[in-house]
Amino acid sequence: MKKVSLPRHDIVIDKDVEIPVRDGVRLKADVYRPRRGGTVPAIINTGAYQKDKLWVPPADLEEKPNPYMNWETVNPLWWVPRGYAAVRVDSRGSGKSPGQTDPFSLQEAIDFHDSIEWAARQSWCNGRVGTNGISYFAMTQWLVANLRPPSLKAMIPWEGAADMYRDFAYHGGIFCFGFVSNWYNNHMAHHLLGRREQASPDAFSKHWLWEYMRNNLDSDHYYSRQARWDELTVPFYSAGNWSGMGLHLRGNTEAYMRARTPHRKLRIQAGTHYHPFYAEEARQDQLRFFDYWLKGVDNGIMEEPPVKLLIRTGGHKNYKWRSEQEWPLARTRWTEFYLQPAPRKRRGNSAEGTLTTTAPRARGSLAYSASAVTKAGVASASWTSTALAGSLPRLGVSFETEPMREDLEVTGPVVLTLWVSSTTDDMDVFATIRNIDADGNDVWEVGQQQQPVPVAKGWLRASHRKLDPELSLPFRPYHAHNERQWLKRNQPVRLDVEIWPTCMVFRKGHRLRLDIQPRDGVGSAPYTHYSADYNNGENTIYTGGSMASLLLLPVIPKR
Question: Which listed residue, of 314, 322, 371, 405, carries a Cα 20 to 30 Å from 79's Cα?
Fold first, then answer.
């Protein structure tokens, strides 16, 4: 039996406690703690989701509704009886805390630092503080870790972006308009129009969206909004989600690969944002990690394999956990699948090209329109002509493998190398990997927002193709995003597109399909992007010979 803290404490609640931070502002927090039994560790989170906003979870969540449930945070009724205090802080300018709201800023990180140290000084705390939470409450963990609060002893950033340029706002240099703008405006509405106490007249008054669009290269504006891996020394349990392409997954895998601390673990699950976090199996992992680092319980968790992966087999069912010793997996067979035009179209198949492990000797090419004509004219002219789903015909080109002769597991980062040209001065590449069954139908996965999603996605704006040579790896290109390299008309260039990590067992008889499009493809919502007004010419993909375009896949051999 693995050692874990057992439930034995009653709960006491301190509402609207004031936390003084260094500039004199007093943030508001709720503290859920054991009524008696000595000092305990604190689990703290800070964010703009309003600590008093009740979350009623779905009926199939393993933790059941109660009056203290709050979106994406730990459930006090589970943690407090096991000897932990749960501290929820309304970040500056949100909920009941005064000030101006500025999510993922240096100010928010400083406030988080001071809140951690405040918690550690309380009479009920043993001086050890951990952070735990999903999404926003994971993103802020990476950023406060840059400041090294002395009392922060362990972190569980659960599905959290860590680079507000690459993971959150600009995927491959393309602005994630759909999510970023809707997310910010939605929470502004919750504060200004929803049911709440109007505690701060400055809530969400900052020109936050304008600042993100204005700073569209990776500049000093993002320095404090990015995890600095070489400075991250606190032990952490990084939990990602295969369906988290477009927001969180990249942060969790980058953390495991690049963080300075040797005390780290990686877990990647599947499905929604919230079901895995509240599952009993996941809570036991979280509890054992915190018991070890915050209570000194020798439960052996750090001697176990550091990587835990949920292996997907298609369709969100019959998945199994597998332990690994490293990430990416050492036994990976990096396999090149070359793009080439199809000699002829198969009946009922819309793919213009094939994917094959044999490098084509002859040079080939495929051209496609970067725009589409609707009743309103050229689609890039106005938002109203592209806003409605189905207003545009299929764009771009697709490539497919032959049916799999046996099951093929792909687990790890993916790279798409393309030789391209355009009739315009820039072009956007939206790459989507899909799982096509024997009947020609998509096998969908469950996304973080319960939406159907494909296997994997990647993005790159051609003018952002410059690589950082120090951080780029053969299996994961790292783009500098610090200058634009404009295209010259019809002049080919090489693009190395980072496709976010994935895991899929393509079953015997299934095909792997690659879509390359000038706009968001299937399964993109809500992480959709701004379609720039230069997307109105013709793009060309080159194949074979000295301009071989290829998909580098992490094929995992059977044990």
Answer: 322
How many angstroms separate the CA atoms of 444 and 456, rounded? 11
Determine the pLDDT at residue 349: 61
- Note the pTM of the prediction, 2 decimals: 0.95
Report residue 213 as tokens.
């669009």
Beta strand ranges found along 22-96 (DSSP E): 26-34, 40-47, 85-90
How far apart (Å, rounded) are the C-alpha atoms in residues 301 and 505?
28
pLDDT per position as a tens digit, 475-524:
999 999 999 999 999 999 999 999 999 999 999 999 999 999 999 999 99
Structural domains of the chain ordered from first start = 11-304 (3.40.50.1820), 333-556 (2.60.120.260)
User: 119: which 2 tokens?
Assistant: 């918690």
Alpha-carbon gap, residue 381 to 228, rounded angstroms:
40
CA pair distance 484, 88, nearest whole angstrom: 42
- Which residues make beta-bridge pairs with 354? 340, 400
Name the DSSP class of 542. Answer: E
Pairing of strands 452-453, 445-446: antiparallel
Tokens describing residue 253: 């895998």
DSSP string covering 120-175: HHSTTEEEEEEEEEETHHHHHHHHHHTT--TTEEEEEEES---BIIIIIIEETTEE
